[in-house]
Amino acid sequence: MSNIETLKNALPAYAKDLKLNLSSIAADTTLTPQQTYGGLLAAAMASRSEAVIEAISAEAAAVLSREAFDAAKTAAAIMAMNNIYYRFVHLASEPEYGTLPARLRMNALANPGVDKVDFELWSLIVSAVNGCGLCIDSHEKVLRKAGVSTLQVQQAVRIAAVVHAVSVTLEAESFSAQLVAVAA
User: Is 135 a catalytic residue?
Assistant: First the structure.
């Protein structure tokens, strides 16, 4: 049984749609296997769910090169920082923040170790999970300029949505089970 199947089996019956969607995004051919599995890995890391990270990491390791595996994790790490910073810049009332240099190291963006389109897709996925509108807009524009179709961008965001929903559901179920055990 694959690690994604194990993850699906861990979902409760009420999350049947998530099970179906998880199968669908893993099997979809809109993106390359590297883009899909790197996206799954980046989304899992952004989700912060130990169970999801463990299952998807194992699955992705069987598909991705070491460089791609590390680049997907790099996208998650860099975007975790950038999404907070640029979400603040976007939401703050003071427009001067948008004129100031970020002064955050982002060297990985210049040389991510994989095709720039793949890294941008993974950065978009993490930005969608983290809800940074400024970063979503920026990465989507770069992708579209590079010739990535709207269907490919949509597929990347579907990965973000499904992995995040699986993570939230499993974490909520774990917490709920702990509460029931304490109450008993």
Answer: yes
Domains of the chain: 16-183 (1.20.1290.10)
pLDDT digits (tens, 9 = 90+) for 104-121: 998 888 889 999 999 999
Read off the pLDDT of residues 33-84 as tens digits, 9 standing for 90 and up: 999 999 999 999 999 999 999 999 999 999 999 999 999 999 999 999 999 9
Catalytic residue chosen out of the listed positions 75, 135, 143, 148: 135
96 is catalytic: no
Residue in 72, 132, 153, 162 annotated catalytic = 132
132 contacts: CB under 8 Å, gap ≥ 6: 79, 82, 83, 84, 86, 87, 90
Q: Which of 5, 6, 3, 7 is nearest to 167 (CA)?
A: 7
